[in-house]
Amino acid sequence: MIRRQPPALVRRAAGPVLYRLARLAGGPPPGLRRGRDFAPADLPTVVVVVAGADEGSCAEVLDAVSRAQWASDAFTPVFVVDAPVLSPFRRAGYVVELAGPGGLGAAVAEARRSYAADLVVVAGGRGPEAADALTGLLLAQRPPIEGPVGRSRRFLRAAEARLR
Amino acid sequence: MSGAGPEVGRGAPPADDVDVLRVLAPDEDAAVVAEELSLVAETGSRGAVLASSPGLPEEVLALVRRGVTRVLRPGEPVRAGAVVVGTPRPEHDLLAAVESPVVLGRAELPAGAAALLRALDGRLPGGRGNGPEGPDPVGPGPVAAGSSGRRRVLLVSSNGSGLGHLTRLVAMGRRASAGTDVHVLSMSSAVPLAAEGLLPYEYVPSAGDLGISARRWNVLLHRRLGEAVRRFRPDVLVFDGTYPYRAVAELGDRFPGVRLVWSRRPMWKPRMGAVQLGLVPRFDLVLEPGELAADLDRGLTVGRGDALPVRPITLLDQHELVGAAQARTALGLEQDVPTALVTLGAGAWHDVDSQLGAVVAGLRRVTPDAQICLVRPSIARSGADPGHGVRTVSAYPLSRYLRAFDVVVTAAGYNTFHEAVAFGRASGFVGVTAQLDDQPQRARWAQREGVGVDLDPLDPSSVARVAELLVDERARERCTARCAQVWPGNGAAEAMAAVEAVADGASGRELLGRAGASEGRGGREREASR
Q1: CB contact set of B350 (below 8 Å; sequence gap of 6+)
Q2: Number of helices and strands in chain A (H, E)
Q3: Among A83, B88, B333, B445, which is disulfide-ready with A136 (CB 3.0 to 4.6 Å)?
Q4: Could you give the CA distance from residue B65 to residue B22 in angstroms, rounded to a whole number?
């Protein structure tokens, strides 16, 4: 089914109100990219720090993260790298941040703030054991908030995304 | 951990019992964990350890005895700024009574992890996940100018994947005088490619990169730009883009000491862009990079008199290009074979329904022995040579190797168009339909002035005219000679000089007045030389 965009007048009138309400509900910005194979969804954000990033380590981390996503689809990964290796993540459709002059700590703090992340995973190791441990950590991520609060929050954020 | 997850954006959180809680698994290296706990204490943070099995290793017990850290019993309720776990399974069972806004999971304990932990540790207790609209840690207010006596210029470029705006800024930045410090903040993910080794830079993902609404993203940019301004303390911020973001346009209100310059490329489509022109009063100066096809410009920027015109801006100057033979060697191309470069973004080379495919097929039909080179973008994809006389090349900046190509077929975007003319390449131009950039007019101008072929309509006959250039050396020489006649020289240095003048206190009005006077003189000189 093709979902039509609401009329411009409705977007202009209701968009700012819904944005404010959704903001109050908290959580990451609606519509945040989750990878090429995953549609945006209202799920907790995990900041995955790739320390000592190079093409090889990034490929391993991407593989571990996507395995966890396919297995649970319970989180939205946001990557933070400490070296200018952005293209593997962008090719795979993920959000990636590059640590700037403030250093890795500042970049992680900023990513947590920007995407309302409550889990930070540092993926510094190499090899299958590290990758498995990373996947395991991500699989341990809790599901989103349930109950009336969770439902209201999801409704507001979905409405904001529709009227953007 | 709390069952409902972190409360976000709801005022100050209650004080933590400990800053960093380290969860110790039985198979972990106790010495490494002890070192981490020591580092936590060294940074002035309160640490604690929670073990998943009875009995603590001697290394940790020694720290407890010295009062460096304390031990928590499983199930003991505690509020922690951050929880650090080494392996996932057993620790999560232990965390039921622990409330923390962040779990710092570590997949492994690699060399250097302790230093990383220290770096993160200083940040964690203060940085709650408030979302992009959380309180600005920087806050509003004036920013003191650099005390070193050097000028500071912050270059800010838009766009999510392209290089046009960023390249213009880097062209300016690398020509800054010795007394100027330059820093780049870009929304282009290609910024490492464009600025590495030339200028210090940072990357802020664009709204498109993130997939979020402009409303949400502007809040994020507002905070990050404010943080960059606080850190770098620029005298001038130069924005290159067609639509200044709200966070940029309103920067003057937040930081009155920072002067704003808008580098505004002309050649807009007719009747488009009125809204952003309303933002001109927010800038101290509007710079207008020169446009060769200016006499075909029908956009709203024409005749406003609010911008300081400079000559067209290209990243490189003639003398920075390498010779043809050397360039072909560097790109792995054969010498003495007619060689064409085709840089048209979308489509597959073997799909004749795409622009790229149509051009490649057309060139191969007329010159089957030629090397047809496609750009393998270093910023997006990679791939092997497709074969059938089609090669892929990758280099940045590719314009440095432009002499490798007898003919260039490119979209008539600002940068590639002006580079092709500046460096005298016989070219075919495709006026790609862009949001605001009136590319078809540039292609038309090129055809009219004899510097290239307008590939509109893109059909076998127009491609054949480009193919003829590939085999006809005299026709190419005529093109090159005409390019030399129309090219006025690179304006990047004069653009940067204008920015530095603004940093030194010159007003936009003053600079516009000076430009008007020299324009008058230049005009009279040109008239006299005819």
Answers
A1: B357, B360, B386
A2: 6, 4
A3: B88
A4: 17
Task: Give domain status of residue B30, yes or no.
Answer: yes
* Total residue count of chain B as it appears in this document: 530
Tell me the pairing of strands A95-98 and B70-72.
unpaired
CA B72 – CA A9 distance, rounded (Å): 57
User: Helix crossing, B214-232 with A104-115: angle to 10°?
Assistant: 150
Residue range of the domain that includes B108: 18-126
The pLDDT tens digits of the residues spanning B23-53 come to 887 777 788 778 778 777 776 677 888 887 7
Q: Which of B131, B214, B379 shows the shortest C-beta gap to A87? A: B379
Residue type, B448: R
Are residues B134 and A139, on separate chains, in Cβ contact within 8 Å? no
| Chain B CB within 8 Å of residue A16 CB | yes
The minimal CB distance from B211 to the residues A19, A31, A113 is found for A31
Distance from CA of B9 to the nearest CA of A (A): 6
Indicate whether B251 and B172 sit together in one domain: yes
* Number of structural domains in chain B: 3
Question: Are residues B299 and B395 both part of a single domain?
Answer: no
Rounded to whole angstroms, the Cα distance separating A33 from A40 reads 6
- On whether any CB of chain B is under 8 Å from the CB of A88, the answer is no
Residues of chain A positioned with their CB less than 8 A from the CB of B29: none
Q: Is B464 on the interface with A (CB under 8 A)?
A: no
SS3 category, A116: coil
Q: Which of B340, B347, B396, B349 is nearest to B368 (CA)?
A: B340
Establish if B227 touches chain A: CB-CB under 8 angstroms: yes
A28 by DSSP, 3-state: which? coil
What is the tens place of the pLDDT at every residue in B475-504? Answer: 999 999 999 999 999 999 999 999 999 999
**Would an 8 Å CB–CB cutoff place B123 in contact with chain A?**
yes
Query: What residues of chain A lie within 8 A of the CB of B202, using their CB?
Result: 98, 100-101
Nearest to B360 by CA among B332, B386, B333, B380: B386
Q: How confident is the model at residue A49 (pLDDT cuts 50, 70, 90)?
A: confident
Which residues in chain B touch residue A161, judged by CB atoms under 8 angstroms apart? 213
ipTM: 0.82
**Non-local CB neighbours of B478 within 8 Å, separated by 6+ positions:** B450
The dihedral region occupied by B303, where left means phi > 0, alpha psi between -120 and 50, and beta the remainder, is left
**Hey, of A63, A96, A114, A120, which one would you mutate to test binding to chain B, going by the most B CBs within 10 A of its CB?**
A114
Measured between CB atoms, which of B89, B216, B381 is closest to A29?
B216
Which domains, ranges and CATH numbers included, belong to chain A?
34-145 (3.40.50)
Three-class secondary structure of residue A53 per DSSP: coil
In the DSSP assignment, the letter for residue A160 is: H
Of B217, B118, B247, B79, nearest to A108 (Cα)? Answer: B118
Q: Please check whether residues B38 and B96 belong to one and the same domain.
A: yes
Exposed / middle / buried, residue A163 (Cβ in 10 Å: 0-12, 13-18, 19+): buried
Q: Does B197 touch chain A (CB under 8 A)?
A: no
CA distance B215 to A60: 34
**Is A29's CB within 8 Å of B380's CB?**
no
Report the pLDDT averaged over residues B331-342. 94
